[in-house]
Amino acid sequence: MTGCIERLMADSDDNWRLWGERDPYYGVLTDPRFRRDSIAAHRETFFADGKAFVDHWLAEFERCFGPLPRGRALDFGCGVGRLTIPLSDHFESVVGLDISEGMLEEARRNSAGRNIAYLPSDDTLSQVEGAFDFVNSVIVLQHIPVARGMAILARLLARVRSGGACCVQVSTRRNHGWWDELRYRIRHAVPGGQPLMNLLERRSVDAPVMQMNEYALDDVLALLRSHGFEHMLLRYERDASNDSVTILSRRD
User: Fold this and answer.
1) What's the burial of 177, exposed, middle or buried (CB within 10 Å: 0-12/13-18/19+)?
2) Distance from C-alpha of 50 to C-alpha of 75, rounded to nearest angstrom
3) Residue 7 pLDDT exceeds 60
4) How crowded is residue 181: how many other Cβ atoms within 10 Å of its Cβ?
5) Mean pLDDT, to the nearest integer, of 166-178?
6) Distance in angstroms (rounded) separating the CA atoms of residues 138 and 122
């Protein structure tokens, strides 16, 4: 049943490409300050938030699990470089992957002079070579249908060297009332639902939207354990739109 529903869902890749072309910073963080017409006044805040996130979680890792090798890092769903850029302050080299060329172009402009390679993403990570000391994917998997996302996560975890680490975030529940949930399901799971709802809401017929897919935490944790991630630090968060969990772990 899940696979059937996912085949009907609005194409998350096409939507993400449109976000990259039309409103890349808001596509990364859905805050009105980061809309295309206001990001110039808030760029410093946008990137400071990313730096604080990376600095915090790397410090938490070493507090809980000990020293982390600082060779290569991978940022899956890198967007405009919000987390990729501060990762380059901690690792010798960084690879950023994203499905949107518009996002990648913006990230390259933001990262001039840094040892970061931005590459197009796909489900098999075909553009990436070798293993990494740190693999990061935050506020990304929730926008990918679960079956695809779990397969991608398995490939990401397989790229972590022994002794390396991962930081992954998944959404576990949409906090919608019944009316908002009905609109969500029409928009994302009914053929033609996305343009129909856009028109009803007086938006451009091809306005991009964001999926918020619900991952089963038990399945995610089992996948990590199957790849040698036995000891984990989890942070649960709830906001108005969804529940999410950030997972930090070392690969044995």
Assistant:
1) exposed
2) 12
3) no
4) 12
5) 95
6) 17
Phi, psi torsion values for 66, nearest 5 degrees:
95, -175
Judge contact between 174 and 210, C-beta under 8 A.
no
Stated length of the chain: 252
Measure the N-to-C terminal CA separation of the chain; round to a whole number of Å: 35
AA identity, residue 17:
R
Over residues 95-110, the mean pLDDT reads 97
Q: Rounded mean pLDDT of 57-85?
A: 97
- Rounded distance, CA 228 to CA 78, Å? 25
- The string of pLDDT tens digits covering residues 179-220 is 888 888 888 888 888 888 888 888 888 888 889 999 999 999
Report the SS3 class of residue 142: helix
Q: Give the DSSP per-residue string, 182-219.
A: HHHHHHHHSTTHHHHHHHHTTS-TT------PPP-HHH
Give the Cβ contact number of residue 71 at 10 Å: 15
Q: Are 121 and 97 in contact (CB under 8 A)?
A: yes
Among the listed ranges 61-65, 164-168, 196-200, which one has the minimum average pLDDT value? 196-200
Identify the pLDDT of residue 10: 53
Q: What is the CA radius of gyration of the chain?
A: 18
